[in-house]
């Protein structure tokens, strides 16, 4: 690529970077009002915009939805041909237009007003007709496009995207939206697998062998065999209240067999591993995998907040999910 082209490409990026730097100064009272409207929305946050702004609106809507705020994108041209019926009084409409004069959006505003939904305008022209008909105006400030003609949306759409992310993530923080909720909305793909909870991959108690501390090793081993194909190669030792006391694995069995078979008549508490490594119910499966990898464990018991045995995570199950 000629030096002149490289120089210009860098200038485009720097132009958009300067736009974002200036945008940070635009965040103020109206932004706080927009966050309050979205956070308090009893319906859905409806994004709308034409052309490139519409594409940015779709992305903002997706970010809102994935972080706990019900949202969808409404094409303004389709809205005036019947899709306006999707909007209800409890909704908040977030309209995107840099100049604030997009005909398709302006035609929607009176109808949205009659429905009773709140309107947030995101625009670079706070004196526009769209802004005047809105409840809250997020002013993006005066933006010079990076396009050499000064026409193609570039710096303006970058600003909309950044402001939309700021809105969505501020609302997320205000909701105290945590990893558990995030995992719920991302069940598929690599991200979803990383956010699976141990509750979703563990083998339930009925599929795992358990024994009391006075049970003989022989009987405890028999309990392992009775769990069937899906059962793990370990028995968890629990007291009368179900609290986990220890674990006895096939590795423990092999090590004890090197000294003969006399231990088979002993109570399992004599040969178990007391206070084994565990994971808590509600933790990420990925964290369980890290612990198992670090300590070279094939299975790890899952306990609740009181230490009660509630399941078992087997490394083979984790390999199918988080890796």
Give an overview of the whole structure:
The chain is α/β, with parallel strands linked by helices. It has 2 domains: 3-177, Glucose-6-phosphate isomerase like protein, domain 1 (Rossmann fold); 198-319, CBS-domain (Roll). It is 44% helix and 16% strand. It has helices at 3-24, 29-39, 51-66, 76-79, 103-115, 129-132, 155-175, 179-184, 189-194, 198-201, 217-226, 250-257, 285-295, 315-319, and strands spanning 45-49, 71-73, 92-96, 118-123, 136-139, 209-211, 234-238, 244-249, 273-274, 279-280, 299-303, 309-314. The strands form 3 sheets. The protein has a 5-stranded parallel sheet with strand order 2-1-3-4-5, with helices on both faces. The protein has a 4-stranded mixed sheet with strand order 6-7-8-9. Strands 10-11-12 form a 3-stranded mixed sheet. The mean pLDDT is 90.
